[in-house]
Amino acid sequence: MKAKPRGNILVVNGYEASRNLYRLVLERNGYHVVTAMEGDSAIRQVAQHGPDLDLVVTEFLLHDQECEAFINQVRALQADLPCLGIARSWDEHIRERFTKIPRCSLILTPNSIYELLDQVESILEIYPRRPRAYISPTV
User: Fold this and answer.
1) Position 93 in a domain
2) Contact present, 38 and 12 (Cβ < 8 Å)
3) Is 97 helix (H, G, I), strand (E, B) or coil?
4) Is 132 a member of any domain?
5) Mean pLDDT on 36-41
6) Quick check: 134 pLDDT over 70?
7) Which CATH number covers residue 120?
8) Sign, Cα dihedral of 13, 59, 70, 130
9) Edge to edge, what strands does the sheet with 31-36 contain?
10) Backbone dihedral angles phi then psi of residue 108, each to the nearest 5 degrees
11) How many domains does the chain contain in total?
């Protein structure tokens, strides 16, 4: 019997290697994953899959827009969708600004896949969503 998927996650990252690594790790741990290279394509994914998404995992510095502007666009489509921002570095002002956004968390680039999984699982435990369809993974 095939295990029930644990949730649907949109991964947004401009670096193909990082995007593919996050996708692979999450899929191997039971999540359905769709990916986007940058903010504009991610907004299209949210528009298409929004009600079925459980979480957006995004790099903090998107190539085509600021992360906060991106999250505002996501929230215009799906007001309650949690977001996990991943930053290569930050100062206290950035962390404070980002964490004031409801249903958002910010972490430094994970040193291991377990850190990423722990964060994803924690967020999904804190912000569970109603049952929905599971979306087909994309690469």
Assistant:
1) yes
2) yes
3) helix
4) no
5) 90
6) no
7) 3.40.50.2300
8) positive
9) 31-36, 7-12, 55-59, 83-87, 104-108
10) -75, 155
11) 1
Report if residue 47 sits inside a domain: yes
CB neighbour class for 79 (10 Å; exposed up to 12, middle 13-18, buried from 19): exposed
Q: For position 36, what pLDDT does the model report? A: 94
C-alpha span between 40 and 74 (Å, rounded): 10
Length of the chain as a residue count: 139
Average pLDDT on 29-48 reads: 93
Query: 115-127: per-residue pLDDT in tens?
Result: 999 999 999 999 8
- Report the pLDDT averaged over residues 12-39: 93
Domain encompassing residue 19: 7-126
| 54 assigned to some structural domain | yes
Q: How far apart are the first and last CA of the chain?
A: 25
Q: Sign of dihedral through CA atoms 13, 10, 54, 103?
A: positive
